[in-house]
């Protein structure tokens, strides 16, 4: 295959999954700038090893590379604590809502608080639970794809997903702990 053909095949296989890779990286690293950097590095690794993708599922293969890249970054910056990496959710909501004329400000605040509670509840999950939840619920991967990305058996995926959902439900209940993370 020519260099141009390889580039075209790479773009067709990987570019559609860049947003999913960024989303996973953002949840794992909890920092938007680090997530962007990790995805860029993952793209370079994917390009370097593109020949290893032999007709397989490019999404799961690429997300696996993103995941490994994120864990490498976490190992490198580990100093005994995980960074909060809190996003400016309120600013995002205001920017998003700026284009929506006639929205009730009280409704926007309520939506922002609800979204913030969900984000806080997801951030409070341990990384193994958070990653399977993000891959399943936000990226809509099936159990087999999640198992491939994370490198664990499907039964472990189901178990972690069940625990993640239970903890999320508990944290989001009126008596839960979502606001205490």
TrEMBL record:
**Stated name of the protein:** RNA polymerase sigma-70 factor (ECF subfamily)
Q: Which family does it belong to?
A: Belongs to the sigma-70 factor family. ECF subfamily.
RNA polymerase sigma-70 region domain residues are 22-78
Assigned keywords, A-Z: Sigma factor, Transcription, Transcription regulation
Q: Does the keyword Protein biosynthesis apply?
A: no
The record's Gene3D superfamilies line, in alphabetical order, gives:
1.10.1740.10, Winged helix-like DNA-binding domain superfamily/Winged helix DNA-binding domain
Which superkingdom is the protein from? Answer: Bacteria
Q: Which residues form a coiled coil?
A: none
Pfam families given for it?
Answer: Sigma70_r2, Sigma70_r4_2
Q: Where does the record place the RNA polymerase sigma factor 70 region 4 type domain?
A: 116-168
């Amino acid at each position: 295959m020519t260099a141009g053909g390889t580039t075209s095949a790479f773009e067709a296989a990987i570019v559609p999954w860049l947003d999913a890779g960024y989303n996973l990286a953002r949840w794992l690293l909890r920092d938007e700038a680090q997530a962007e950097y990790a995805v860029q590095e993952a793209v370079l690794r994917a390009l370097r090893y593109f020949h290893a993708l032999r007709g397989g599922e490019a999404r799961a293969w690429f997300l696996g590379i993103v995941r490994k890249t994120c864990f490498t970054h976490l190992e490198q910056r580990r100093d005994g604590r995980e960074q909060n990496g809190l996003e400016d959710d309120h600013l995002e909501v205001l920017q998003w809502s700026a284009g929506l004329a006639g929205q009730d400000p009280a409704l926007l605040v309520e939506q922002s608080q609800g979204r913030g509670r969900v984000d806080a509840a997801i951030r409070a999950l341990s990384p193994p639970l958070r990653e399977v939840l993000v891959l399943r619920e936000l990226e809509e991967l099936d159990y087999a794809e999640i198992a491939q990305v994370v490198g664990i058996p499907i039964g472990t995926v189901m178990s972690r997903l069940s625990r993640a959902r239970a903890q999320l439900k508990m944290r989001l209940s009126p008596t839960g702990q979502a606001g205490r993370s």
